[in-house]
C-alpha cells in the first residue's frame, strides 16, 4: 500500500483530545483542501461554521445527545448543505430560478459530505484526529437557530478535530466482496458474509471493552432502524426550502 491508502485505512473516530490548539493557519489549510473535493457542476454547495464560542459548543454537545468531545476538541466544525449562495448567484445572473427541488437537496448534501471527507483526510495526514457528529440532526431546528442559518441552508453533521489523547483500534469493515458487486446486484452471498462479519465485530467489541460489550454489527444496527429514525427531518428540510418538488 502507498502512504495515502495506509492513511485512509488507519481511520478511527477520536473522542478524547489533548488540550492543544492547532497551529496558526492549519485550519484554513484543511478547509482549502476540503474545497478541492469534487463538486457537482462547480456549485460548491456548502458552508462550514467554525464554532469557538464555549457556550455554543456546550449547547451543541447537548443538542447532539450529550457528546462531551464537542467541547473538548481543539476545533468543532458544522458542515452545512448550502443552496442559498449558488441560487442567489444564478438569480443575479438573470436566471428564473426554481427552489426546493429534491435534486438540490441531494447535490448540497453530497457536496458537503465530499468536502468534509477531504477535510478529515487532510486533518489525519497532519496527525490530527476527527470525529463526525451526526447527532446534530437530533435537533436540527435548534442547531440552525443557534448558528443563525438562513433558508436553503441546513446542518448535515459536525466534526471534532484535535490532537488525539487515546489510541483506539481501527474498527473492522465489511469484506470488500460484500459491497463490491460485478455487473449486477447479487446478494446471494450477503447473509453468509454478514454472519461472518458479525463474528468479527463480536470479537472486536469484546477486545475493545475488556469483555464488557457482548454485541455484533447486526445488533448495533437495530437502534438505527427503530429509535433513531429522526422522523422530524422531512418536515425540517421542507421548512428550510429543501426537497419538496
UniProtKB/TrEMBL annotation:
Q: Which organism is it from?
A: Marinobacter persicus
Q: Which residue intervals define the domain Nitroreductase in the entry?
A: 9-163
Q: Which family does the entry's similarity section mention?
A: Belongs to the flavin oxidoreductase frp family.
Q: What PANTHER family does this protein's entry cite?
A: OXYGEN-INSENSITIVE NADPH NITROREDUCTASE
MF GO annotations? oxidoreductase activity
Q: Can you tell me which residues the record assigns to a coiled coil?
A: none
What protein name does the entry list?
Nitroreductase
Per its UniProt record, what InterPro entries does this chain match?
Flavin_OxRdtase_Frp, Nitroreductase, Nitroreductase-like
Query: What UniProt keywords apply to this chain's record, in alphabetical order?
Result: Flavoprotein, FMN, NADP, Oxidoreductase
Amino acid at each position: 500500500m502507498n502512504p495515502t491508502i495506509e492513511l485512509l485505512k488507519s481511520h478511527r473516530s477520536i473522542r478524547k483530545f489533548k488540550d492543544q490548539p492547532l497551529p496558526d493557519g492549519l485550519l484554513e489549510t484543511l478547509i482549502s483542501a476540503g474545497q478541492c473535493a469534487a463538486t457537482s457542476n462547480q456549485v460548491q454547495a456548502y458552508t462550514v461554521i467554525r464554532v469557538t464560542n464555549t457556550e455554543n459548543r456546550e449547547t451543541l454537545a447537548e443538542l447532539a445527545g450529550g457528546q462531551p468531545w464537542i467541547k473538548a476538541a481543539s476545533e468543532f466544525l458544522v458542515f452545512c448543505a448550502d443552496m442559498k449562495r449558488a441560487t442567489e448567484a444564478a438569480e443575479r445572473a438573470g436566471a428564473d430560478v426554481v427552489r426546493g427541488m429534491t435534486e438540490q437537496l441531494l447535490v448540497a448534501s453530497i457536496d458537503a459530505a465530499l468536502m468534509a471527507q477531504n477535510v478529515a483526510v487532510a486533518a489525519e495526514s497532519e496527525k490530527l484526529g476527527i470525529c463526525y457528529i451526526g447527532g446534530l440532526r437530533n435537533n436540527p431546528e435548534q442547531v440552525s437557530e443557534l448558528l443563525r442559518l438562513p433558508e436553503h441552508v441546513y446542518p448535515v453533521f459536525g466534526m471534532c478535530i484535535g490532537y488525539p489523547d487515546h489510541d483506539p483500534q481501527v474498527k473492522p469493515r465489511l469484506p470488500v466482496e460484500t459491497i463490491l458487486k460485478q455487473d449486477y446486484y447479487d446478494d446471494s452471498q450477503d447473509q453468509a458474509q454478514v454472519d461472518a462479519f458479525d463474528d468479527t465485530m463480536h470479537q472486536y467489541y469484546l477486545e475493545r471493552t475488556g469483555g464488557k460489550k457482548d454485541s455484533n454489527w447486526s445488533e448495533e444496527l437495530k437502534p438505527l432502524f427503530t429509535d433513531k429514525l429522526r422522523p422530524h427531518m422531512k418536515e425540517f428540510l421542507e421548512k428550510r426550502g429543501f426537497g419538496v418538488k
